[in-house]
Design goal:
The protein is of the alpha+beta class and 279 residues long. Helix content is 44%, strand content 22%. It has a seven-stranded antiparallel β-sheet with strand order 4-3-2-1-7-6-5, covered by helices on one side. A hairpin with a 2-residue loop joins β6 and β7. The radius of gyration is 55 Å and the shape is elongated. The N and C termini lie far apart (170 Å).
Length: 279
């Protein structure tokens, strides 16, 4: 029985691993049909690689380069053009050194750290790759950058989810026996008065409500228009106004004359005695 259980558990684990592998979908991020491979000399110093140290006109292999995204891995595959046979491959993984290093004297050549599993041991080697056009080299770098960007976003999303789960959630639900008390204030005054008024209005009948509305909305009638004036009265008013204005003008002229006579009497004569004596 124990052996059968162990076999069943092993079979279940194998099926889970197969499902995980099948769930990881391969996405082709970049492909170019002309890629050149160079056998480069070992690095002599800590400085970067230079393409002028290679013989770029004599490449060791020519084929297709593909950039494939599979789950969290990004695979760089070098395949034969006609048969599709694998020549070499490199892996871009999160937390490991970048497998692609650009040279310092050209934008079309790179150093690729390829990986191969031989007898259960992983071995690395460095080869040079080159593209015919600069646009192809730029698209190759952009595909690798997009994959790293995807990994960073996935990591931040997982951290945010874990942080949300770790934070203590507050329970705002009402427990048994708990009640809520709401105090609503009105603009006109206390709530009790408004409730009493509403109850009184609702208790009235339809006829009483109609009478109450008529009493509230009633407006005083406008005053009557003024009566038209007769022509005789208008003539009398005009003559009275003219006589009043004439009398006021005459009185004002007499006052002005009296003021002028007083001013001439009050002003003393100038003394020209010396001038008359000289004459």
């Amino acid at each position: 029985m124990d052996k059968e259980k162990q076999q069943e558990e092993s079979n279940d684990q194998g099926s889970v691993e197969e499902n995980d592998e099948s769930e990881a979908i391969e996405l082709l991020l970049f492909q170019v049909s002309e890629c050149y491979v160079y056998l480069i000399p070992p690095r002599k110093s800590a400085s970067s690689y230079r393409a002028d140290e290679w013989n770029v006109n004599k490449w060791a292999w020519e084929g297709t380069l593909k950039v494939i995204s599979k789950g969290e891995e990004c695979i760089i595959r070098l395949e034969d053009k006609s048969t599709g046979e694998l020549y070499a491959r490199a892996f871009l993984r999160n937390g490991e050194p970048h497998p692609v290093e650009p040279v310092i004297d050209s934008s079309r050549y790179f150093v690729l750290r390829v990986e191969e599993n031989i007898g259960g041991r992983v071995r690395h080697a460095f080869i040079g790759i080159g593209f015919r056009e600069r646009t192809e080299a730029y698209d190759f770098q952009a595909a690798l950058h997009d994959h790293m960007k995807y990994l960073n976003k996935k990591r931040t999303a997982e951290e945010m989810e874990q942080q949300f789960q770790n934070t203590s959630s507050v329970d705002y639900s009402l427990k048994e026996g708990e009640t809520l008390v709401l105090q609503i204030k009105t603009k006109g005054g206390s709530s009790a008065k408004s409730k009493i008024l509403e109850q009184g209005v609702s208790s009235l009948s339809i006829e009483d409500k109609g009478k109450q509305k008529e009493a509230v909305i009633s407006i005083k009638p406008p005053p009557p228009p003024p009566t038209p004036l007769s022509p005789a009265s208008t003539v009398e008013k005009a003559s009275n106004n003219f006589s009043q204005k004439h009398s006021e003008g005459a009185s004002s002229k007499e006052e002005d004359r009296s003021l002028e006579s007083q001013s001439t009497e009050d002003i003393p004569d100038d003394d020209f005695g010396d001038f008359q004596a000289a004459g």
